[in-house]
Each structure stands twice: as C-alpha cells, then as structure tokens.
Amino acid sequence: MQHLAKAIFLTLIALTVFLCTFLGNEFRQRLLPNRGQTLFKFIYAPSGSGKGAYLDLTEEFEHEADNITESFNVFRAIQQDGYLLTPMSVIESAHDRLQMDGATEDEVIRNNADHLGHRSSAEIQSQNLKVPNVVHYVYTGSGLQFTFVNYLSYRSVGRYIRPEQIFVHGDHVPTGPWWDRTVREVTDIYHVRTIPSKTAPNGKTYRFPAHVSDFMRTEILLRYGGIYLDPDVLVVKSFTPLRQYSAVMGLEAPGRLCNGIMLGVRGAPFLRLLLEQYHSYKGEEEGWAEKSVENTHKLAELYPHLIHVEEKSLDRPSWSETDLLFKQVYNWTQNYAVHLFIRLWPREKRPNGPEDVLTARTMFGQLARRIMFGSSEVKSNLSQTIRSPNRA
User: Fold this and answer.
1) Distance in angstroms (rounded) separating the CA atoms of residues 331 and 318
2) Which pTM was predicted?
C-alpha cells in the first residue's frame, strides 16, 4: 500500500510539472508568437539609407550586448543611421536659464547642489552606469498643441536630469509660444525627422495613434538607449540611480506597467521582447493598453531578471488618482518623476501658464513652482520674464 501511495504521489508531481511547463510555454507563445526566431527583422531602416525595408540587427546587438558603455555616442549613431537632425535650442548656459526665472544667485547654487544630480565623470564611471544620459520624446502629427505642461516637462528634464541631448522624434517640429520659450530656456534639443509607420510589423494597421508612439519609443530605446518620457511627465530628481539597470519601468497599478517613462540600454533584451509582441498585433481587435501596459507586466513577471520595476517612484499617483495630482497634495519627495496623465484631466481645468499655479496648494502646483522657480513655495507675483507668452 505504501509503494502504491508513493507511486501515485510521484505521478501527480510529474503531471503537475508537465502541466506547468506546457501552460507556461503556451502562455509565452501567446505573448511572443515568434519566440525563437530572429527578433529584429521588423526594425525599419531610415528612408533613403540604401538598406532594405527591414534591418536584421540581431548579430550587431548580440555582439554589443555585453559591452554597453558610457562611451556609446547616441548623437553620432542617429546621424550615422541617416536621420535628419536639426538643432532647436539656442541658450547655452543652465546657470543663465535658472537666472531667467528670477532666481537669486544663492537659489541657483542651492538648486544645482541639491536637485540637479550632477555627477563627475569619475563618479559616473564608478557607478557602472549603463543607460546613456539622453532623453527621447516622440512627437507625431501636425495638429498637436505644445502646452504649458509640455514646457514644464522639458524644463524639468533640463533642471534635474541634465542630459547630454534631448531628442524629439517625429514628422513635425513642435510649434507655438510654449515651444518657442522651451527652446530658449532648455539646452541641446534636437529634432529627429522620422516618418512613423501606420502599420505594425505584421502589416495590421494601428488601431490607435498611441500605438504608433508605443512602438516608436520602444524601437528608439532598443536602437540607441536612453530615457524615454511622455511629454506630460515632470522629473523630480536625477535618474542616475536608475541608469545602472538594462531596462526600467514603473508600476502604475497592479498588473500594469506604464511605458510613459522607460529607461533602457541599447539592445536591452526586455525591449526586444516588447517589440516582438507587435508581430501579433490584432488591428481593430487590439486593446488600448494590451501590449504597452498589460502584456508588458506579464513579460516582467516571466523575465524579472531583464527589467527593474519601480513600484511607486515613477508612475504613482496613477491615471486613476488624478485628484491627488490636481486637487490635493501628495508626498512626491520619494519620486523620480510624476506622470500627470493630463489627457484624463478636463481640458477646461488644465493649467495654461505660471499664473495658474502661483498659489495652487496642490501637488501639481508645488511641482510646477519648483521647476520654474527652484522652490515649491507659494509665490505672490510674477516677473515679466516668466509670465505666460500669450499674457506677457
């Protein structure tokens, strides 16, 4: 009887292992239908580069995967790939930029020391940083309005990340008074002329414009590395501690990672997995957040060694907690950044300039004042240089 019970027990264990393995592989196949094939044939070559419609980058990335260093030059790589790079910004001194805001000399010095996260070359090398200190935005379509919130995003990048370059990828250069002011006050902005594809790698048409950007941002990080930000993300402090990982994303809710803030090294395996999903894009049946948020979290659970997940410091408060952003005060001091999810806030209630945040006792008011003035304290008045462009 004991031998029979033991045999039954061992059989159950073997059956359990088999089912777990089979179901696990089945789940992976659903997420990644082309698993095991070359991962990079769907990365587009720049138009006019003389190369094929797709680039097979597997060998190139595999060769460099273990040799990611701070010396990789993103600017030069983008140029070599044949993209048109146009310099946008005209100001050269971050010190001058802060002084334009009416900050005193002491405030400028204190802000540099406490918040900008500046590191010497020796410190950067000793920290074994992998992700290049460049920031990427995606800006597609001619009908988009560059807003006060977008201006604050770029200003926060210049103030707290201090990147080597800011690359704006898209088919149109942003326009408007807030863009004009941005390029006067933020250094090293370059427009990278890119014609976005309207179809996924499997030929299915993207259902939502956001899916075009989802693919583009991941492809950009995979190709060049760096930091991707949605244009309604406000940076709170230096990203230096996050740049030691090969890929970083933030949790926005249980079972959901947010691709509005991403860091990655060139050729990061997790970024490859994200792009490979698009071979199974379902066209009109594709859900809004299916690949960019929900599947991304599933992949992170399957391959936790390929990505570092920040639970609260990148995408909290989340899209479901906008009252914490615009009506209340949330303790943001432990955040690296705050994602505003501005599209979910009623248009008529959105702040349109410094005048709207001078005395606002909200999280957004504090962050906006800190970005513009170097302090979150309530302000009583504005100097002429920092009024809204359309109100000056």
Assistant:
1) 14
2) 0.75
